Amino acid sequence: MLEPAYQADVVIVGAGVAGLSAAHRLNSAGVTTAVLEAAPYVGGRMSTEKVDGFRLDRIGQLLSTTYPELGLTPGLDALVLRPFAPGVLLHSGGVRHRAGAPANGGGARGALHAVRALASAPLPVSVPLGRSTPTGTPRNRTAAPRPRTGAPLGTAVDQARLAAALARLAGTPVERLLTRPELPAGEALAARGVPARTIDGFLRPLLAALLCDPELTTSSRCADLALRAFASGLLCVPEGGADMLPELLARTLPPGTVRTGVRVTSVATTSVTTAEHGEFHCRAVLVATDARTAADLLPGLRVPGFHPVTVVHHTTDEPPKTGPSLVLDADRGGPVAHTAVVSEVDPSRAPAGRALISSTILGTPPPDADTAVRIHLARLYGTPTTRWETLAVHHTAEAVPTMRPPHDLRRPVRLLAGLYVCGDHRDTSTVQGALHSAHRAAAAIVADLGAAGSMHMAEPLRAAA
Fold it and tell me: 48-83+237-241+306-401 has which fold?
């Protein structure tokens, strides 16, 4: 018997969210796919370690309820998003301040209402460390106190400017944001007249959490997109851990589509070569790996810089009283950029009676990261942390691709007919960017291969001899 001409229309290298979502879109168009993954599991950097009933994300990327691709990607119908409390808690000068909370659950109008209310308030909503109220409002508010100049959001005038900027971003179409002049985010914010105290007290810690870039070297266009999502929606995490997103995508593909433990050593327009199973024949190849692996397979592809991320997970039976809030350090008084009692956001991540606190360090972690983090968390939460149990410390040196200007948010996904590439390094360095690049790549492949009705059926997938 003759070998089939090919085993699938398209071989996808990499079973991260980009590769898996591209497979769904191609299958929906009648294009058969084979997804080959070198690791023993799917998901790539969106992985979650299971330890004694805890679900511990390795990177813990924040999502937004306004990410369009989460609703557009086939296979994610069952995805449940667990939102943080609206806005963030800013730690500054021993006090936590609630900031940026959109009204009515989000949306441009809600964001506008919230920041206007914040700008006109006599004092930023704050709770002294170690104390909280059921409603989150400050205790002992006087009739008309004057705003403190040193507060994270600055004076009332500073807050009004911030209100106007966030409101404009929430209502500005994405394509218009992409035409703005491009500078490093810190320079762009200063050039727009945003006071330094507002940048350092609110926007820097917020963008550090959203983009893993506390130095604000990211393209101002990418920063605008991140702030737009924050102003118009809610920050959130997938229920059950970050790996639920790729797991759902893999689970809802046709049986046999995804093969793990298969290392691809080279690619061409009509075949891929693997270390374990020889050559796979196809009509097109899509490389959907991380940026460095993609460059190894596709010489000449640019490798960006990366933001290192370290996530430290602790547990205790007496959780801090912050509720499902994201806590940011405006003072930058320690290694932790942001932290949260994640089990308050998503109870499925910890066993009953235990709290899971996940904290993120950006850049190079200190030599004794756990001790430094405990000291810092004691200040951020206003509670002793010496008896907290450390569950895991996950360090990822190449966690998030940098997006320094000039940054092309729509880098080509079609290298030549039959050879394509996608991932967060071709778009924005977010889950939304990874999914959107896969969307673009799948559309290019379908256009090049022709309408589904004109395709002949592939033989069942099997490795060539």
Answer: Polyamine Oxidase; Chain A, domain 2 (3.90.660)
> DSSP string of 331-385?
T--SSEEEEEEHHHH-GGGS-TT-EEEEEEEESSPPTTHHHHHHHHHHHHHTS--
Per-residue burial over 101-130, b if 16 or more Cβ lie within 10 Å, else e, is bbbeebbbebbbbbbbebbeeebbbbbebe
How far is residue 358's CA from residue 391's CA, in Å, rounded to a whole number? 10
In terms of phi and psi (left: phi > 0; alpha: psi -120 to 50; beta: otherwise), the region of 107 is left
Q: Domain 8-46+243-304+405-454: which topology?
A: FAD/NAD(P)-binding domain (3.50.50)
Handedness of CA 372, 374, 377, 383 (dihedral sign): negative
Q: Environment class of residue 222 by beta-carbon count within 10 Å: exposed (0-12), middle (13-18) or buried (19+)?
A: buried
∠ CA 349-244-230, nearest 5°, is 80
**How confident is residue 99, by pLDDT bands cut at 50, 70 and 90?**
confident
Please tell me the distance from the alpha carbon of residue 361 to that of residue 38, in angstroms, as a whole number: 28
pLDDT of residue 434: 98
Q: Answer whether residue 92 shows pLDDT above 80.
A: yes
pLDDT of 456 strictly over 50: no
Helix or strand (DSSP H, E) at 295 = helix 291-297
Contact predicate 285/267, CB 8 Å: yes
Q: Where are the domains of the chain?
A: 8-46+243-304+405-454, 48-83+237-241+306-401, 99-125+148-230
The tokens 């993609």 sit on which residue?
294
| Residue whose structure tokens are 């106007």 | 164
What is the DSSP track for 116-166?
HHHHHSSS--EEETT---TT-PPTT--SSPPPPTTSTT-SHHHHHHHHHHH
Asked whether the beta carbons of 420 and 286 are under 8 A apart, the reply is yes
Q: How many CB atoms lie within 10 A of CB 353?
A: 6
Is this model's pTM higher than 0.90 or not? no
Task: Tell me if 76 sits within 8 A of 249, measured CB to CB.
Answer: yes
